[in-house]
């Protein structure tokens, strides 16, 4: 199949290269000329494990290419994926669909022959109808079927998730697209990943319902963690105790500083807005959004309390800036709010992240950046782990203690056990576990 991928970001680039790896002929298009230039020069504009090698192999084999020229590729494609961003709209929290609609207009002007247009971006229910309307208005002769195919990959494990998905959801209202989409996903289908065909609107809602449910699960265990701290219980054991129940499941039950990232915050908010617009409010999710918003800054206060209640003029080292390990993505990272709370209280913050520091510099002002965890800890009055990168899991605590001014460790991801830290002379604070 000839596939065009519009948008070469985290989703577009990973999906594009994986489709190429399945044997399809894929052209990735991005408006950002710098991104395309980098890709053409063999540089990957994002950090995602395994991506560089997979891109290089597929470019070498001639199945994957990059361009800013949408017209040529679109006119030759059987299937066109829209994988552009759908951030929160400034002001009201609705999904900003302007990139999707712009892409739809540009595609419509250049399609030839029967073409399947697939929205891979996360879009509110009903967006497919509007994409179809825009395309028919732009080009009344276009022979198109507009399909919804939301993406469920996780940054940091994106290639594996794409190649071994739990399910592939395809929403269509035009039966002609069914065979084409089955062909696109044939290698996965043969690999026993279930293809779930449904209507376009249902498919669009599945994506939001899924993300909202996961965000709710995280928020649930975070509130249980707070309660554990008050009553002297251990949230990790609570999570295990409930997670072994097959009806609940053990995943997404890790207490922490609140969910962040490029999806959960904006998608929960967009679902809340969509539901309100349809006079069918999702109050559970409204609460999840507000609990999670409060939590991130509360984590800053937790650090301040652990450091004795006053951090003015004190040095705090923050390890982990990205919203989760194995990505360089800083979008809505809890570290942003934690650091803001600390600097508002007068702390002098040094941050370190294995991959996220270039992006962090665009969104976090007024801190210094270190080259490694030990450099960050020099002279620190407290050390905070915000993101559980592997390299923070076995820190040399004796070395840290000699470098720090005061040996206080605040572990917002529960990656250490209290005893193993305190025996090195540290004061240790974590989430929802007895001190
Ligand atoms: P991103 O910001 O990394 O990438 C989007 C890209 O689209 C950018 O490079 C941008 O320049 C490009 N673009 C915008 N308009 C364009 C146009 N008209 N023509 C060509 N290129 C254009 O975003 P992302 O993280 O890849 O997310 C894309 C979509 O996928 C969003 O809707 C998101 O919610 C969804 N999603 C993301 C993830 C994730 O983990 N990042 C997972 C599942 C779904």
From TrEMBL:
<dbReference type="GO" id="GO:0006065">
    <property type="term" value="P:UDP-glucuronate biosynthetic process"/>
</dbReference>
<dbReference type="InterPro" id="IPR008927">
    <property type="entry name" value="6-PGluconate_DH-like_C_sf"/>
</dbReference>
<feature type="binding site">
    <location>
        <position position="260"/>
    </location>
    <ligand>
        <name>substrate</name>
    </ligand>
</feature>
<comment type="similarity">
    <text>Belongs to the UDP-glucose/GDP-mannose dehydrogenase family.</text>
</comment>
<dbReference type="InterPro" id="IPR036220">
    <property type="entry name" value="UDP-Glc/GDP-Man_DH_C_sf"/>
</dbReference>
<feature type="binding site">
    <location>
        <position position="331"/>
    </location>
    <ligand>
        <name>NAD(+)</name>
    </ligand>
</feature>
<feature type="active site" description="Nucleophile">
    <location>
        <position position="263"/>
    </location>
</feature>
<feature type="binding site">
    <location>
        <position position="266"/>
    </location>
    <ligand>
        <name>NAD(+)</name>
    </ligand>
</feature>
<feature type="domain" description="UDP-glucose/GDP-mannose dehydrogenase C-terminal">
    <location>
        <begin position="317"/>
        <end position="418"/>
    </location>
</feature>
<dbReference type="Pfam" id="PF03720">
    <property type="entry name" value="UDPG_MGDP_dh_C"/>
</dbReference>
<keyword id="KW-0560">Oxidoreductase</keyword>
<feature type="binding site">
    <location>
        <begin position="152"/>
        <end position="155"/>
    </location>
    <ligand>
        <name>substrate</name>
    </ligand>
</feature>
<feature type="binding site">
    <location>
        <position position="324"/>
    </location>
    <ligand>
        <name>substrate</name>
    </ligand>
</feature>
<feature type="binding site">
    <location>
        <position position="207"/>
    </location>
    <ligand>
        <name>substrate</name>
    </ligand>
</feature>
<feature type="binding site">
    <location>
        <position position="30"/>
    </location>
    <ligand>
        <name>NAD(+)</name>
    </ligand>
</feature>
<dbReference type="InterPro" id="IPR028357">
    <property type="entry name" value="UDPglc_DH_bac"/>
</dbReference>
<feature type="binding site">
    <location>
        <position position="86"/>
    </location>
    <ligand>
        <name>NAD(+)</name>
    </ligand>
</feature>
<dbReference type="InterPro" id="IPR036291">
    <property type="entry name" value="NAD(P)-bd_dom_sf"/>
</dbReference>
<feature type="binding site">
    <location>
        <position position="155"/>
    </location>
    <ligand>
        <name>NAD(+)</name>
    </ligand>
</feature>
<dbReference type="GO" id="GO:0003979">
    <property type="term" value="F:UDP-glucose 6-dehydrogenase activity"/>
</dbReference>
<feature type="binding site">
    <location>
        <begin position="252"/>
        <end position="256"/>
    </location>
    <ligand>
        <name>substrate</name>
    </ligand>
</feature>
<feature type="binding site">
    <location>
        <position position="35"/>
    </location>
    <ligand>
        <name>NAD(+)</name>
    </ligand>
</feature>
<dbReference type="Pfam" id="PF03721">
    <property type="entry name" value="UDPG_MGDP_dh_N"/>
</dbReference>
<keyword id="KW-0520">NAD</keyword>
<dbReference type="InterPro" id="IPR017476">
    <property type="entry name" value="UDP-Glc/GDP-Man"/>
</dbReference>
<comment type="pathway">
    <text>Nucleotide-sugar biosynthesis; UDP-alpha-D-glucuronate biosynthesis; UDP-alpha-D-glucuronate from UDP-alpha-D-glucose: step 1/1.</text>
</comment>
<dbReference type="InterPro" id="IPR014026">
    <property type="entry name" value="UDP-Glc/GDP-Man_DH_dimer"/>
</dbReference>
<protein>
    <recommendedName>
        <fullName>UDP-glucose 6-dehydrogenase</fullName>
        <ecNumber>1.1.1.22</ecNumber>
    </recommendedName>
</protein>
<dbReference type="GO" id="GO:0051287">
    <property type="term" value="F:NAD binding"/>
</dbReference>
<dbReference type="GO" id="GO:0000271">
    <property type="term" value="P:polysaccharide biosynthetic process"/>
</dbReference>
<feature type="binding site">
    <location>
        <position position="122"/>
    </location>
    <ligand>
        <name>NAD(+)</name>
    </ligand>
</feature>
<dbReference type="InterPro" id="IPR001732">
    <property type="entry name" value="UDP-Glc/GDP-Man_DH_N"/>
</dbReference>
<dbReference type="Pfam" id="PF00984">
    <property type="entry name" value="UDPG_MGDP_dh"/>
</dbReference>
<dbReference type="InterPro" id="IPR014027">
    <property type="entry name" value="UDP-Glc/GDP-Man_DH_C"/>
</dbReference>
């Amino acid at each position: 199949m000839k596939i065009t991928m519009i948008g070469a970001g985290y989703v577009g680039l990973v999906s594009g290269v994986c489709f190429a790896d399945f044997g399809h002929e894929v052209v990735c298009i991005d408006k950002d000329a710098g991104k395309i230039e980098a890709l053409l020069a063999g540089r990957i504009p994002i950090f995602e494990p395994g991506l560089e090698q997979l891109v290089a192999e597929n470019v070498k084999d001639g199945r994957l290419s990059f361009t800013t020229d949408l017209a040529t590729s679109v006119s030759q494609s059987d299937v066109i994926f829209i994988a552009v961003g759908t951030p929160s709209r400034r002001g009201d929290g609705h999904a900003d669909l302007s990139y999707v609609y712009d892409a739809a207009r540009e595609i419509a002007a250049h399609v030839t022959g029967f073409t399947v247009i697939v929205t891979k971006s996360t879009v509110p229910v009903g967006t497919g109808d509007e994409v179809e309307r825009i395309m028919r208005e732009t080009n009344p002769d276009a022979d198109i079927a507009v399909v919804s195919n939301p993406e469920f990959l996780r940054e940091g494990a994106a290639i594996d998730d794409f190649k071994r998905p739990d399910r592939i959801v395809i929403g269509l209202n035009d039966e002609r697209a069914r065979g084409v989409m089955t062909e696109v996903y044939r290698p996965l289908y043969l690999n026993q990943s279930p293809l779930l065909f449904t209507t376009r609107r249902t498919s669009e809602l599945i994506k939001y319902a899924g993300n909202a449910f996961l965000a709710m699960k995280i928020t649930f265990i975070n509130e249980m963690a707070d309660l554990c701290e008050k009553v002297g219980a251990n949230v990790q054991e609570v999570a295990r105790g409930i997670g072994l129940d097959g009806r609940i499941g053990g995943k997404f039950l890790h207490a922490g500083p609140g969910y962040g990232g490029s999806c959960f915050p904006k998608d929960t908010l967009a679902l809340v807005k969509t539901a309100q617009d349809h006079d069918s409010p999702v109050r559970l999710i409204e609460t999840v959004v507000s609990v999670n918003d409060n939590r991130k800054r509360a984590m800053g206060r937790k650090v301040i309390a652990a450091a004795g209640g006053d951090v003015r003029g004190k040095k705090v080292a923050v390890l982990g800036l990205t919203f989760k390990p194995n990505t360089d993505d800083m979008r809505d990272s809890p570290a942003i709010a934690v650091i803001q709370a600390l600097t508002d209280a007068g702390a002098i913050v040094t941050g370190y992240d294995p991959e996220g520091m270039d992006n962090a510099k665009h969104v976090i002002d007024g801190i210094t950046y270190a080259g490694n965890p030990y450099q960050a800890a020099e002279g620190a009055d407290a050390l905070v782990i915000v993101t559980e990168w592997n390299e923070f899991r076995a820190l040399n605590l004796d070395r840290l203690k000699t470098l720090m001014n005061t040996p206080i460790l605040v572990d917002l991801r529960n990656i250490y056990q209290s005893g193993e830290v305190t025996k090195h002379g540290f004061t240790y604070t974590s989430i929802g576990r007895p001190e």
